[in-house]
Design brief:
Elements lengths: L19 E11 L2 E10 L5 E11 L10 E10 L4 E7 L6 E4 L4 E4 L3 E9 L2 E9 L1
Antiparallel strand pairs: 1-2, 2-5, 3-4, 3-8, 6-7, 8-9
Length: 131
């Protein structure tokens, strides 16, 4: 992602006969924990499974920092025409990066983009949270 290289199969990519619609993203921060909630509708005439992925990325990522990291995921069976609400707690380590100069994992305070999608290159919903 950092080098903007086109890939055939992005991280988390999978095939499905169903079409899913993502909506209603909310991001809540309480005492250092971040919770992500959103809806996924199975807009197909068939029942299917979907793996939803939550990513966190620092808006001012430096040269040696990742653009985004996988912060949580969940797999669920969604019946045709039904909506499932996902509630995912973001892993606190998603906001850390390894700082070579201090030889430790650190968290930069600032704005982080929380993204939700079905793979690392198809991020459908996005919100910003202050850490």
């Amino acid at each position: 992602d950092k080098k903007k290289v086109k890939v055939r199969y992005p991280f988390g990519y999978g095939l499905s006969y169903a079409k899913f619609i993502y909506d209603n993203l909310t991001v809540t921060k309480t005492e250092g924990d971040v919770y992500v909630s959103f809806d996924v509708k199975n807009a197909s005439p068939i029942d299917a499974k979907e793996i939803v992925q939550v990513y966190a990325g620092y808006n001012k990522a430096g040269k040696n920092e990742p653009i985004r990291v996988l912060a949580g995921y969940e797999k669920a069976f969604i019946e045709a025409g039904k909506i499932k609400t996902f509630n995912i707690k973001v892993n606190p380590r998603a906001f850390e990066y390894y700082d070579v100069d201090s030889d430790a994992f650190v968290v930069k305070n600032g704005k982080y983009e929380i993204s939700v999608g079905d793979n690392s290159r198809n991020l459908i919903l996005k919100k910003t949270v202050e850490i």
